[in-house]
Please model this.
Amino acid sequence: MMSSTERLSSLDALFLYLESPRTPMHMGSVAIFEGAPLKDGQGNMRMRAIRAAIEGRLDSVPKLRKRVRFPRFPGASPVWVDDAGFEIAHHVRLVDLPAPGTDAELLELSADVLAEPLDRGHPLWELWFVQGLSGGRVALIEKLHHALADGLAGVELATVLLDVERDPAPQVDAAAWHPAPQPREVTIVTRDLVHRSWQPVRAGLSVLGALRHPLLRGRPAAELVGALGTLATPRTVAPRSSINVSVGHRRSLIFVRQPLDELKSVERRFGVTINDVLLAAVAGGLRSQLMGREETVDGGTLQALVPVATDPHGDHHLGNKVSAMIVRLPVGLDDPVARLAAVARTVSSCKDHRQALAGDFIMRLLEPLPRPALIATAAVAHHQPFMNLVVTNVPGPSMPLYALGAQMLEAFPVVPLAGNLSIGVAALSYDGQLSLGLFADRDRCPDLDVLADGIRRSFSELIVAAGESGAGNPGGEANVPASTGPHPAGAAASPRRSPQRHLHSGAPVHRSAGPPAVRKKEHPSSR
Model:
């Protein structure tokens, strides 16, 4: 069980230091649900029941009732403390779209909500229910700070808060929650000083722990040296691209949908992984986007940071347990099968050289760093030269999930944008569909729809190629090098209009200065 206070790991804290009004560091998602079970007989959202159901499960994820406290001494780490003023209505909200709300309006609303930083005076998560969608559907916009969890933990969080059956057994009433008293200031200061005094020892232990990583057991340390060597070459620096510019406040969002069965035919025919197919399709989409900008792409590549889970989450403790690989995307190749082959070779090489292990080693070296060093690291990261974008692929449940009897029809993940990354791509497999959320700076990347259409076209080209290959060579060998791939941690754009939105909330909204506020009228809801 989580204690009343817990220090953030250096990686968790780094996501706080990376955050600014123009670069919120929360992960997001947009899910679509059946509407009827979530509404009463008058068609109004059952917000009392929804909030009660969610609050009744928070004991399973204690960190969702904790806020961040920054220490007085600059060298010490921030800590999680119970939020004495916790109110479920602050975190679970309702907003209206004028019916019948379109998918384009949902995308605009979601982008605006996701562009606003979370309030650090409260636990770092929010759930926004959206009513008024066409067909009686209900959407759910989730915001979960990266300091709380990585993408895989975020999916596990959803499985805690949702049900695997439409009519589950009634949940046992949770005991009343009482926040733990915060330690006296002198106690906090003493703990900070002790923590700082042990940091030199922690530095040595962190390096030793990395060298004794389970992935290295029985293998020479030369493997780690070789893995680090893959990150110490001129190719580590990403090619220059127009997608790498300082981002602003506003965001845009587009969904891409792709049935998994069709992608599995590509996987089987060419001997690759779904993740390889995803990366190849993203490469094709980026090629279309750059060509639309009249940029030279022949023979070129872009560099994607691909998160890799290093440790499964099974205790709902949340946190970040990830490493990463740097994968070159062959945007200079016109042939979709050739792009897939190049991606598969690159991913296979990353795995052969254990690049994810090198990333994990570097992440472990962050742990003993004092707060000023982490803040400096975050400042440098906003101008990093190593990646052009992030592409993350999170495995979700293969069966449908439910909320108060309403089936979640689909869900689209969203990855935050760092200082000079104007585009992010996140994918989630759920109930037979691979769902992509394309998130971008609205002003620096006005052609996000070109990227989306290019990805869809690349998927289609690979599916057709797999069928033609199968027809000409039934049961034959794959003609693309096999790759195990990393274990991973829609509607086209249309003319924008600004629908009026009404927010129902039991608590005032606290916003940091930053993106223009979404136009909404706030008032309490007792439904």
Notes: The chain has a mean pLDDT of 80.
